[in-house]
Amino acid sequence: MKATIFSLMLLITTSAFSQQKKKTIPIPFSTKDKVVHVYTSADSTSLRLTNTDNLKFSVLKQPMETQTCVFVDPNKTYQTFLGIGGAITDASAEVFAKLSVEKQQEVLNAYFSKDKGIGYTLIRTTIHSSDFGPSSYTYITEGDKELKSFNIEHDKKYRIPLIKKAMETAAGKAILYATPWSPPAFMKDNKDMLHGGKLLPEFYQTWANYYVKFINAYEKAGIPIWGLTIQNEPMALQIWESCIYTAEEERDFLKNYLGPTLKKAGLGDKKITVWDHNRDLMTQRASVILDDPEANKYVWGVGFHWYENWSGGEPMFGNVDVVHKMYPDKNLLFTEGCNERFNAEKYQLWKNGERYGKSMINDFNNGTVGWTDWNILLDENGGPNHVGNFCFAPIHGDLKTGELIYTPSYYFIGHFSKFIDKNAKRISSVSSRSNLISTSFINPNGKVVTVVMNLSGKKVTYSLCVGTNATEVSILPHAIQTLVY
């Protein structure tokens, strides 16, 4: 009897193990009968996310060194894709509100519809004011230490309605995270929301409570908060809303106040992102916070911007990879980037778009899971901005003419966001020549998305190689292509 029971248990265990094993074996990607749909945007042409080719694979067992190739290996997978999106600020919301109903719908479709637009699924917003808006404000009466006056009535006029419409257009696929630019003036040592300054230690708990109030108020208004970053650009003394935190100060505020306060309030599931500043200092910030076990346990990821070239140098893409290798269990999130110093004569400056393409390819190849642009919409002056820090957005609404202006940046972002789906896996993708850069993902439905940029001023013919098969593709000078197969 015992032998029979043992044999039965062994059979069940073996069967269960066999089924489990079958589930974990990935199905190898095959190019058989696959059509490569090529979408192109190119400088000095009318091509904008245009389907320019539909190609088929043929056998190419060994490329020659004289051939230019992009090698893709769908069986080598890396990070899971979260999404791409932009920020809904007071500036974006107020410009949106001044457009005609038809143009409002066009903006919503252009960004948040996968079919009619480029399919944004990430939204960033501000906790009270940033520089992008007509004024500086908070959600409380100045000096209210108990936060009894807290209310978000200001946001209900423009910002909250736009966020709701964006989420509706995205058909429930968009998630939102929030960022403060500065605590209220009375909580800071300089008694000013602008010009840097620091959060006074006696207000650490009050400020932590403020995040809880914000999350609860937004969620009561029907807007789920997926996550938050602790402070926008914590090492930048700006003429607009700003607040300085050293790495140790951000660590201690997180582990002693913000993290425990969110958990106590039943908000421990909110994703907390640290740093939220440029790539230059991100390794130091990450190590100080994440090497502390008590701080580490509250951290979902490390956020970063692209403005480190203010010093005259090149973007520090490699620092993202270093942080990824140092802390592979943490997520990397690009939280802000825009082309600065607005000039209407440069609306169609192609290199503004190329800046996006280079950053997105490099950031994704270095382990980034999500990528968030800055303002989704600004006016014909690059604002409103209450301190004159006017910038570009992918789309501008000219409030004098009522027309929308699409810049190259919109199309460059779209080459990624329109085609890469949430939960896609990044896969191996490399070029054999420095004039081409690429990244690739495999979507949950099994389709591969490869993005290729031609950095040169010459047309390039290359072979897209997957295993022992390839297809020949031509890419125009200063063009970006998405290949779906």
TrEMBL record:
One matching Pfam family: Glyco_hydro_30
Residue span(s) of domain Glycosyl hydrolase family 30 beta sandwich: 423-483
GO terms under biological process: glucosylceramide catabolic process
Domain Glycosyl hydrolase family 30 TIM-barrel: residue ranges: 83-420
PANTHER family: GLUCOSYLCERAMIDASE (PTHR11069), LYSOSOMAL ACID GLUCOSYLCERAMIDASE (PTHR11069:SF23)
Similarity annotation: Belongs to the glycosyl hydrolase 30 family.
Name listed for the protein in its UniProt record: Glycosyl hydrolase
